[in-house]
Design goal:
With 230 residues, the protein is mainly α. It has eleven helices and two strands. It has a two-stranded antiparallel ribbon with strand order 1-2.
Length: 230
């Protein structure tokens, strides 16, 4: 492991220093090993680890490339971690969501343009028509992603997207949703958007905190109607 860690560190140093950048192809294995002064076995293990982390893209028969290094790629492995959640992990993940998304809502209230606010309102419209739980969860998750995008922080959006993924969809079923549940969810989303549109950062953050708390309750304790998409 020490040799593999050393190989990872050397590859990372090349990327950080700018020797290799997004989209660049790494030298062939034997040449790369000689350049870095590491064995082929250590190099292979390092490449596997960095591929899992979204840093490298191994194309069998086509070489190894640096990925785009965009946040949504680099944080893909976080979604793997959320797949392994237990009750305690769920509570901790929702605490992180509450902090991140309330910040995102407050930031949106301070900086959102009329076009961005309209984009949020547009995300509300399909919600009234969805009755399939999985489709509704996907729709609700998209609303949260669009809201986070307004912050302009790509890592915040990627983090929230990763945290949303599994805990919600694990609870999705093919059963129809009640009209009351759909209406309640859309109304809560609309209230958050109204607070953002009014420029009230405190209210927007508070409404989002309450919103995420209710999702947390449904995911961990359950309710008759799936409301986790909120």
């Amino acid at each position: 492991m020490a040799l593999t860690d050393d190989a990872i560190a050397k590859i990372k140093a090349k990327i950080v220093s700018g020797v290799w950048g997004p989209g660049d192809r790494l030298p062939p294995e034997h040449e790369l090993g000689e350049q870095l002064g590491i064995s082929r076995n250590s190099l292979r293990e390092a490449v596997k680890a960095l591929a899992f982390l979204g840093v490298l893209d191994v194309r069998h028969g086509g070489g190894t490339y640096i990925t785009s290094l965009e946040p949504d790629i680099l944080l893909t492995s976080l979604a793997f971690v959320t797949d392994m959640h237990d009750d305690r992990a769920l509570r901790e993940m929702f605490h992180i969501r509450r902090v991140l998304e309330s910040h995102a809502a407050a930031e949106a209230a301070r900086t959102a343009t009329p076009e961005e606010i309209q984009a949020l309102r547009d995300e509300l419209k399909p919600g009234h028509e969805l009755t399939d739980a999985a489709a509704y969860l996907a729709h609700g998750s998209q609303f949260h992603r669009v809201l986070c995008d307004i912050s302009g922080n790509r890592y915040l959006t990627a983090l929230v997207t990763s945290l949303i993924a599994r805990p919600l969809f694990d609870r999705a079923t093919a059963e129809p949703l009640g009209a009351a549940t759909v209406e309640r969810t859309v109304c809560e989303h609309a209230a958050i958007v109204d607070a953002i549109a009014s420029g009230d950062a405190v209210l927007a953050a508070t409404l989002m905190e309450q919103h995420v708390d209710e999702i947390d309750y449904w995911v961990r304790d359950g309710e008759e109607d799936p409301v986790a998409s909120r």
